[in-house]
Design a protein that fits this description.
This protein has about 375 residues and is mainly β. It has one domain: Single-stranded right-handed beta-helix, Pectin lyase-like (Pectate Lyase C-like). It has three helices and 29 strands. The protein has a ten-stranded parallel beta sheet with strand order 3-4-7-10-13-16-19-22-25-28. Strands 5-8-11-14-17-20-23-26-29 form a nine-stranded parallel beta sheet, with helices on one face. The chain has an eight-stranded parallel beta sheet with strand order 6-9-12-15-18-21-24-27. The longest helix has 10 residues. The protein is globular and about 55 Å long. Belongs to the polysaccharide lyase 1 family. Its cofactor is Ca(2+). It is an enzyme of class 4 (lyase). GO terms for molecular function: metal ion binding; pectate lyase activity.
């Protein structure tokens, strides 16, 4: 099947704020292959007041990353933008669907050196225990259809991980997440994954893990979808920073995400038919929600506030949410709390210079249903 490219899904006009700064060529070099090509300029809509100008035919997120195998490295938008995965390592070919042993995914992930992991086989890998991923790994599912079941991936005290184009379904057991990121992991990019039906979370980011981007993922058939920040006693989670964009939360019940302490930037996501609320701000959370689509089912409350007491504070407090350009459909009720705290929510431009975003619309909603999650992509060549 031919490759499905992100830019083919967006016929709409977009807007530009300032060009994206790609990693320098020496950052993206590889000892046995030429460096990935320089990224074309991205487009951005930080806020309506930022001097945005219209530009016809501008590129949209990641149109270039499927041109070469390693072109993913260093190209995430948002807080996870520095993730290079296994850029500087050799290719590891997964040839077995066994839980462990020669040619298995588990064998590749325990190797301490950088690796770019690709699959020479499609099918289901039944994990009997968490599969722990060591630093500087790219798990690249393009070109095959790989489903992980039983348990999930564990990113523990690691850095520079890219997880692309995989399926996660049917994780069983106490504290079993699809992708569990804790503690103290950083520079993570999760892109184009489909996640559903785990006993705990689909993606949990806690205990001082930070600088994470989750993009173009599809979440379904689940209750507690994404927890960011462990609990009110883990005050060191104040360092957490996560970007979530162009994702489709498809009837999942709650936590899209639920945040404690950290900072989360949500943009161009589509969340529909939640069962309790869409997005939750708990203790000291700062959530910036820009140009997202919230389409209610029976439950109408979009933004929920859950006050808690931080371990080093006397007062009970919730966090703050700033909504800009969001689209509320089918009677969805924002239920935003106004006050001085809204202005204290971070400005994304203070953290990264550009991100790709278009106004929330019905057309964007249709695109996200097609282009999020696992995709039938050809694997790019490594040249």
């Amino acid at each position: 099947m031919g490759a499905r490219r992100w830019f083919c899904c967006f016929p709409k006009e977009t807007f530009t704020h300032r060009p994206h700064s790609s990693p320098s060529s020496d950052q993206l070099s590889h000892p046995t292959s030429s460096a990935p090509p320089a990224a074309p300029p991205f487009v951005s809509v930080p806020t309506a007041a930022a001097g945005v100008t219209k530009e016809m035919g501008a590129k949209l997120p990641y149109a270039h990353v499927d041109a070469r195998l390693r072109a993913l490295a260093g190209q995430a938008e948002g807080f996870g933008r520095h993730a290079i995965g296994g850029l500087h390592g050799p290719i590891y070919h997964v040839t077995s669907l066994a839980d462990d042993g020669p040619g298995s995914l588990r064998e590749a992930c325990r190797i301490r050196e950088p690796l770019w992991i690709i699959f020479e086989i499609s099918g289901t890998i039944h994990l009997s225990s968490y599969l722990r991923v060591s630093s500087y790994k790219t798990i690249d599912g393009r070109g095959q259809r790989i489903k992980l079941t039983g348990k999930g991936l564990q990113l523990k005290e690691c850095e520079h991980i890219i997880i692309c184009n995989l399926e996660f379904e049917g994780g069983r057991g106490h504290d079993v997440d699809g992708i569990q990121i804790k503690p103290k992991s950083r520079h993570i990019w999760i892109d184009r994954c489909s996640l559903r039906d785990y006993d705990d979370g689909l993606i949990d980011i806690t205990r001082e893990s930070t600088d994470v981007t989750v993009s173009r993922c599809h979440f379904a058939m689940h209750d507690k979808t994404m927890l960011i920040g462990a609990d009110s006693s883990h005050i060191t989670d104040r360092c957490i920073r996560v970007t979530i964009h162009h994702c489709f939360f498809d009837g999942t019940r709650q936590r899209h995400p639920r945040l404690r302490f950290g900072r989360v930037h949500l943009y161009n996501n589509y969340t529909r038919n939640w069962g309790i609320y869409a997005v939750c701000a708990s203790v000291e959370a700062q959530i910036l929600s820009q140009c997202n689509i919230y389409e209610a089912g029976q439950k109408k409350v979009v933004f929920k506030y859950m006050p808690e007491k931080a371990a080093d504070r006397e007062e009970v407090a919730s966090g703050w949410i700033r909504s800009e350009g969001d689209l509320f459909m089918n009677g969805a009720q924002p239920c935003l709390i106004q006050g001085a705290g809204v202005e204290s929510v971070f400005n994304a431009l203070e953290h990264y210079p550009t991100w790709t975003m278009e106004p929330a619309s019905v057309a964007l909603k249709e695109v996200l249903q097609l282009c999020s999650g696992w995709q039938a992509l050809q694997r790019p060549a490594d040249w």
